[in-house]
Amino acid sequence: MRCKLVFGLSLVNLGPSSAASPDLTSAARIALAAYVQPVPAPYNWTGIYVGANAGFGFATASTAATFSGLAVTGSENLTGFVGGGQLGGDYQIGSIVVGLEADFDYSAQSHTTTLAPSARPIPFRGSARFAAGSAMPSTEL
What we know:
Layout (H helix, E strand, L loop, with lengths): L1 H12 L12 H8 L13 E21 L2 E24 L2 E12 L2 E4 L4 E4 L2 E11 L7
Antiparallel strand pairs: 1-2, 2-3, 2-4, 3-6, 4-5
């Protein structure tokens, strides 16, 4: 008798599963068909940013002039490393974006001239600026 009972329980387990797709209720089919992908949130430009920059600058110039019959020539050589950083922030109000950015750079460049031989360093440079604009939707980019 024990063998018959085990065999009978095995047949029950081999039957169709309740999770098979044809067995889904009509409400479950409607829920699957009605799925709509959510709309992504609009992009917001509000935030701060920090950056760094580095480079090498070079420039040369020469000039010649005559003053009261006296010929004068001069040349300039401006070469060297430049590097620094910038810090800024933006704030978005509706579709309007306002911001402030500042930068500060160190320079190993020097300005030399042959007219009056001397080398003058240009050690630092900095600036700050305000910006305002309108944010476009990502569909227009």
